[in-house]
Write a structure and sequence with these properties.
Strand 1 (8-12), helix 1 and strand 2 form a beta-alpha-beta unit. The longest helix has 16 residues, at 275-290. Helix content is 33%, strand content 21%. The protein has three domains: 8-92, NAD(P)-binding Rossmann-like Domain (Rossmann fold), CATH 3.40.50; 101-304, Mur-like, catalytic domain (UDP-N-acetylmuramoyl-L-alanine:D-glutamate ligase, 3-Layer(aba) Sandwich); 313-443, Protein-Tyrosine Phosphatase, Chain A. The strands form four sheets. It has a six-stranded parallel sheet, with helices on both faces. A six-stranded mixed sheet has the order 15-16-20-17-18-19, with helices on both faces. The protein has 17 helices and 20 strands. The protein has 447 residues and is of the alpha/beta class. It starts with 7 loop residues before the first strand and ends with a helix.
Length: 447
Amino acid sequence: MRDLRQKSIVVVGAGRTGVALCEYFVARGARVVLSDARSAERIGPFPRLVELGVVFDFAGHTQSLFTGADLIAVSPGVPLEVPAIAAARDRGVAVLGEIEIAFKELCAPLAAITGTNGKSTTTTVMGEIFNAWGKRTFVGGNLGTPLIEALGGEWDWLVAELSSFQLEAIETFRPRHALLLNVSEDHLDRYPDMASYLGAKMRIFENMTEDDTAVLNAADPLVMEAAASIRAKKIFFSSQSLLAEGMGFDGSDLVWRHEGLEHRFPSSELRLKGLHNIENVMAALIPPLLEGCPAETAWRACCAFGGLPHRMAPVRQLGGVTWYNDSKGTNVGSVVKSLAGLSAPVSLIAGGKDKGGDYAPLADLVRERVAHLILIGQAAGRIADELGHLTHTVRAATLEEAVALARELTPAGGSVLLSPGCSSFDMFKSYEERGDRFSRAVQALPE
């Protein structure tokens, strides 16, 4: 970035990304304020930032600090409509997101992945492919490690998962490969409608040219509807059919056809199961193959990958019942994909902080496969109103109580699935904490 010495910078959001941004700006000589709406007691101490001279603005955002700054650096998840941010923008203060700030200094090509579901798996698998090819690969973004932490490393490739929130505050951000996996209702507590949500996702393509590649899901109607506006060269994948050019699926093999060549990859060799994971693998394969990775090397890496924590992760078999931790299933579309991979009878533990989406897409699967619907969290009432009449439905005050109820209700041969369809922030710090609590409760059940 430009010379930052003695510039006044406000970093908004005191999570891992915010801390990394503070360290980045201090190292470049800036005067840094870390601002967060939460109190210091809720956030915890930051001794390292104290040593660096960072000033803290907690329990609210002091507008004068924002309007008097040279730059506002926004962490993912912080709405740009925060009054202090809006006031700063009105005064002409630049407001940039972390990925835009990092992008200005990145020295390696970037593959960026967005979509409603499957981002983390696709990002991780692509990173495994590049690493198997012998490339020094940074894997992060919304997945866990902020992109700003890639700066200073010696990388051949960067692979980053990006949320719609991260894409809201970009200016010049331009990946070599951008992937849009799918689009379904999510974050409607943040966006006024689906068009706004999709518009945020589509920003990933806005600075790309014909020298770059957009990887798109040909089986997703919303993706295809939006594809016309993309200037980058388009490469498609589809789990519903074979493609003359791109990555298709014939029900058995993933089939890559590009510039007259064809490679077939048997899906039976994958450790990842489910049609949604076949889509994730298809998407992950395309950028490395386009860059010259040998097909055999890429496929070996895909087959070796066993899945992410908290994403349809088997926890335990107990009394003939299989327990699954799908805490990362934070929207309805994700729960649909997870339930579709299980046979009846299923006891589904769902609920949490409502995100404003429609639960109706779950109706058929709940009616056909869910024997017991166990609801927790703030959204329990709304889910009960929309789906509770379709199956036996009960509520639990805690996740541990939900686990105990599932133990009582689920017969041998059935499954218990934690797939909340909601965010975790009403009861937990993160979906990881929710998933860990679930797994501990399940492991603690007596034989």
